[in-house]
TrEMBL record:
It holds the Pfam family Acetyltransf_6. NCBIfam families: pepcterm_femAB. Residues 168-301 form the BioF2-like acetyltransferase domain. It comes from the Bacteria. This is FemAB-related protein (PEP-CTERM system-associated). Gene3D superfamilies: 3.40.630.30.
Length: 359
């Protein structure tokens, strides 16, 4: 009697072909069904980042009998200033391993180290998910950043009263101002957003991302991304590009002009986005992450969001120096101060070249 065919019951770590429609659909289905997934796990995010920044999109999966049981999205980021890194996920505040129940993610940690070495990439960053707590070469960070998320209220007035008193007063003043609200994804929405966002990040001392990145996210996310813009006398003064995932809205790239503070346009923008998201059927508002005890951290707490510590894993190849992309480090702080003084046209010209390596 012939021996039966061997059935492979051990999951295998493989580099996924994101250009294969069947593999992309399998990963997308795994992400959609996973309760811990974020917008940054979606293949659409990886492809948008690749299209918009020129960095390679990669993905590792654990498969058993052809079924995806764990998944690690990756962007290989190249920067002459900050070095090379495999980030999960690139240009995102979330990512990391997604794993099915009772599946050991350890083979993915081994696989990503091996992939980094093959790609001559000395660093790996996992932004969330299960982490390799005891593996050599890994450092786990638990104090550097916090996330902010809370449920949306059941009505416009309830949303307003859910905001703490001091911040609520600012929102009420913004509602009384001569401001208009627009939402959409068309050419005028994109132009208004980029002009506003570029000025905002220059004022903060940060290079602006390529406009192609924003366009790619809007194009590939379809109905799961849009822009909300606040205008005064017809001119955009605050604008935010948001993504939607699993019932939550995340205002991801937002900012305002110098006039936004005086007009309280940012206060109006975030309140209007809460209303807009609820009308779209969202149940939660995800304010993203902020560096612990930073100005943005305090701003989100003022809106009534409780900070939740986030955990990140960082791997450094043997003998390689640790990657320094921390904007609060002494080296980068000096660069930020200089960047704030650049004329806006100059910042917008050279900023995207630098920003595509930030990751």
């Amino acid at each position: 009697m012939n021996a039966p065919f061997r059935i492979d019951v051990e999951p295998r770590a493989v580099l996924a072909d994101l250009g294969d429609p069947d593999m992309a659909r399998s990963i997308e289905a795994f992400v959609v069904a996973h309760p811990d997934a974020t917008p940054f796990h979606r293949p659409a995010w990886l492809k948008a980042v690749a299209r918009g920044t020129g960095n390679d999109a990669l993905a590792l999966v654990l498969t058993r009998c052809g079924v995806v049981e764990a998944y690690l999205p990756l962007t290989q980021v190249h920067s002459p200033i900050f070095g090379r890194v495999l980030a999960s996920s690139g240009f995102a505040v979330g990512g990391g391993v997604l794993v099915a129940p009772d599946v050991d993610p350890a083979p993915l940690f081994v696989a990503v180290e091996e992939l980094a070495l093959r790609q001559s990439t000395p660093s790996v960053e996992l932004r969330g998910g299960p982490l390799p707590e005891a593996r050599e070469g890994w450092a786990i960070k638990r104090e550097s950043h916090c996330g902010f998320i809370r449920p949306l209220a059941e009505s416009d007035e309830a949303e307003l009263t859910a905001i703490p008193r001091k911040q609520r007063a600012e929102v009420r003043k913004s509602l009384a101002g001569d401001l208009t609200v627009e939402t959409g994804t068309g050419p005028s929405d994109r132009a208004a957003h980029y002009a506003t966002y570029a000025q905002s990040v220059r004022n903060l001392g940060t290079p602006v991302f390529p406009r192609a990145l924003f366009d790619a996210v809007l194009d590939l996310f379809g109905d799961d991304a849009d822009i909300l813009t606040i205008r005064h006398d017809g001119a955009p003064v605050a604008s935010v590009l948001s993504v939607y995932h699993n019932g939550a809205v995340m205002p991801y790239w937002g900012g305002g002009t110098w006039d936004a503070r005086r007009l309280r346009a940012n206060d109006r923008m975030y309140y209007e986005l809460m209303l807009h998201a609820r009308r779209r059927g969202c149940t939660h508002f995800d304010f993203g992450r902020s560096k612990t005890n930073s100005g943005a951290y305090d701003f989100k707490r003022n809106w009534g969001f409780d900070p939740q510590p986030l955990s990140y894993g960082v791997w450094t190849a043997p003998g390689a120096p640790k990657r320094d992309a921390d904007p609060t480090s002494a080296t980068h702080s000096r660069r930020i101060d200089l960047w704030k003084k650049l004329p806006l046209p100059v910042a917008n010209l050279i900023g995207p070249w630098i920003a595509r390596g930030l990751g």
